[in-house]
Write a structure and sequence with these properties.
Heat Shock Protein 90; nucleotide-binding; Rossmann fold; about 625 residues; Ribosomal Protein S5, domain 2; 4 domains; binds adenosine-5'-diphosphate; six-stranded mixed β-sheet
């Protein structure tokens, strides 16, 4: 390709570009962070490839980024001597969005600029952010290892297309030149650029160089001015933040570091920074974001922890460093022990990595425990944080009950639920236990699709009547996760929709006697009911758990709930056919009507189908159900 070629952006890029330039308007300066971060990544990549191919360094082994501007031409250039781009890479990487999930991301945009800007921030706009301040971008590059004649120039105005052509470029690496818009003249200033770099990019390990400014006296009575000299100076600290001592790092620096590695706009909820010594040596700097990313529910999504070995960047998203249930955590791990050429496969097996993973897990749980503690402290500035954490990440944390047996108890203490006594998900198991009724022997819970559905379950009636608190489990993961938690500090967890209710000591003798009597006299009807419903119900029995409702469905102890079976079927998974038990309230007028009724069969089926409806299910044959009810009404 020596001829100039004009190519179109992938449709999503064009759309993203439009959004970037319109939504990020209020936070323009981040473009510099993004471009410097790309330059730094390119240098990391070169360093990594050069571990096996030292010749890639050519004659320039010192990796660096140079930022310069030209006031007359109104251009700002960010140049690196990193890995560079081949022509094909320029076309592919700067013309399409390779990241998965782009479509989903696009579909989440609302048109509300503020909300969208936040989403875009999470997604990371990278290179395209240059178009916030530029109406044209020229990229010139040559990949390390290619001949000087194999360079590439890429030019675009950020609308529908871009041009590429072959150029000769002796020096390796990439320079990105922004042709600044009228309203972006601010960035033609050494002072301004330096201040943005120190805000966002101090921790970049590479030196970032700018031309030194000198004061030149005016001649012939003209005023003096600052002029750029030929000398370059380093304008960033150029030390990796995590290698510095904690006491020398301000909260603002931690926050900016977080933003630069996560592309997030918001500040993190918490962070932890430690140098771990012992048989495995490493530094960890881990953050809990203040909101969930849009793809949190994708369990295959890579974790947000970057792995460094002795300050050399090895890989992004090193999922081996944290269990999947902590996939919302972002940060950096720098190991002193791992080999530089460690691969993802090797990571899975390494004993050092296992130790790091355990250490990270402990630290993250400790961070969350601290937030929970702060919630109890009226004086704490962090009082609100735990509730926020729980709303964003609570459901993911629950996966840990099934995934991390070693920490199950720690996780159990962090759980929060809504309940019959609390509309918000704020009841801990410990708080529940503390207010259990005299004689109560279990922690009761009910699962449901939504909190409203759970709250209206007939199974709750007797608990309500007796003032016994029942926890609502309405997250999709609840039933699965809770199946790993059979007890909390010696008290069993018991679903109110599974097995028989045995309120034990909570029921008084009179109630027990009355129930037994009702059951006895109901026996003949029960036998007929069983017969009529033998295809639908595993069993029919009399219950004391109902107060106002005629009947309800329960499953056997240890069985899968109807709701989970439904969820699994909806998700296209195989679920066992759960045949529930119908429990009837022998003192309910409708149930008493059964005895001797000519419509016994219809009534029996209506009783069953209504119980199914009440807990969120669907009668097997809705039309038949309607027919039966209508016949009765008529
Ligand atoms: P991201 O960096 O998040 O992948 P970007 O849109 O910022 O997304 O960049 C897209 C791709 O373009 C990068 O993944 C990289 O392959 C390439 N790229 C961008 N800037 C540079 C650079 N300075 N040197 C080499 N490659 C670059």
């Amino acid at each position: 390709m020596s001829q100039k070629q004009t190519l179109s952006f992938q449709a999503e890029v064009a759309q993203l570009l439009h959004l970037v330039t319109h939504s990020l308007y209020s936070n323009k300066e981040i473009f510099l962070r993004e471009l410097i971060s790309n330059a730094s990544d390119a240098c990391d990549k070169l360093r990594f490839e050069a571990l096996h191919h030292p010749e890639l360094y050519e004659d320039a082994p010192n990796l660096e980024v140079r930022v310069s501007f030209d006031k007359d031409a109104r251009t700002l250039t960010i140049a690196d001597n990193g890995i560079g781009l081949s022509q094909q890479e320029a076309i592919d990487n700067l013309g399409t969005i390779a990241k998965s999930g782009t479509r989903e991301f696009m579909s989440r945009l609302s048109g509300d600029q503020k909300a969208d800007a936040q989403l875009i921030g999470q997604f990371g706009v990278g290179f395209y952010s240059g178009f916030i301040v530029a109406d044209r971008i020229t990229v010139e590059s040559r990949r390390a290892g290619l001949k000087p004649e194999e360079g590439v120039r890429w030019v675009s105005g950020g609308a529908g297309d871009f041009e590429v052509e072959t150029i000769t470029r002796p020096q390796r690496g990439t320079s990105v030149t922004l042709h600044l818009r009228e309203d972006a003249s601010d960035y033609l200033s050494t002072w301004k650029i330096k201040s943005i770099i120190s805000k966002y990019s101090d921790h970049i390990q590479l030196p970032i160089l700018m031309r030194k400014e000198e004061w030149k006296e005016g001649e012939d009575g003209k005023p003096g001015e600052h002029v750029l000299s030929d000398e370059w100076e380093t304008v960033n600290q150029a030390t990796a933040l995590w290698t510095r001592a904690k006491k020398d790092i301000t909260p603002e620096q931690y926050q900016e570091f977080y933003k630069s590695i996560s592309h997030d706009y918001e500040e993190p909820l918490a962070w932890t920074h430690n140098r771990v010594e012992g048989s495995t040596e490493y530094t960890q700097l881990l953050f809990i974001p203040s909101h969930a990313p849009f793809d949190l529910w994708n369990r295959d999504k890579a974790a947000g922890v970057k792995l460094y070995v002795k300050r050399v960047f090895i890989m992004d998203d090193a999922e081996a460093l944290l269990p999947a249930y902590l996939r919302f955590v972002k940060g950096v791990v720098d190991s002193a022990d791992l080999p530089l050429n460690v691969s993802r496969e090797l990571l899975q097996e390494s004993r050092d990595v296992k130790a790091i993973r355990e250490g990270n897990t402990r630290r993250v749980l400790a961070m969350i425990e601290d937030l929970a503690k702060a919630e109890q402290d009226a004086e704490s500035a962090d009082k609100e944080k735990f509730a926020k954490f729980w709303a964003e990440f609570g459901a993911v944390l629950k996966e840990g009950l099934g995934e991390d047996f070693g920490n199950r108890e720690r996780i159990a203490k962090l759980l929060r639920f809504a309940s019959t006594q609390s509309d918000t998900a704020s009841v801990s198991l410990a708080a529940y236990k503390a207010r259990m009724k005299e004689g109560q022997e279990a922690i009761y819970y009910i699962t449901g699709d939504t909190q409203a559905a759970a709250a209206h379950s007939p199974q709750l009636e007797i608990f309500r009547k007796k003032g016994i608190e029942v926890l609502y489990m309405t997250d999709r993961v609840d039933e699965w996760a809770l199946s790993f938690l059979t007890e909390f500090e010696g008290t069993p967890l018991q679903s109110v929709a599974k097995g028989q209710v045995d309120l034990g000591k909570l029921q008084d003798e009179g109630e027990k006697k009355a129930a037994e009597k009702a059951a006895e006299s109901f026996k003949p009807v029960l036998a007929k009911l069983k017969e009529a419903l033998k295809d639908k119900a595993q069993d029919v029995r009399v219950t004391t758990r109902l107060v106002d409702s005629p009947a309800c469905l329960v499953v056997t102890e240890g069985g899968m709930s109807l709701q989970l079976a439904r969820l699994m079927k909806q998700a296209g998974q195989k679920a066992p056919d759960v045949k529930p038990v119908l429990e009837v309230n022998a003192s309910h007028p409708l149930v008493q009507k059964l005895d001797g009724s000519p419509a016994f069969n219809d009534l029996a089926h209506i009783l069953f189908d209504q119980a199914l409806l009440a807990e969120g299910g669907m009668p097997e044959d809705p039309a038949e159900y309607v027919k039966r009810v209508n016949a009765l009404l008529a």
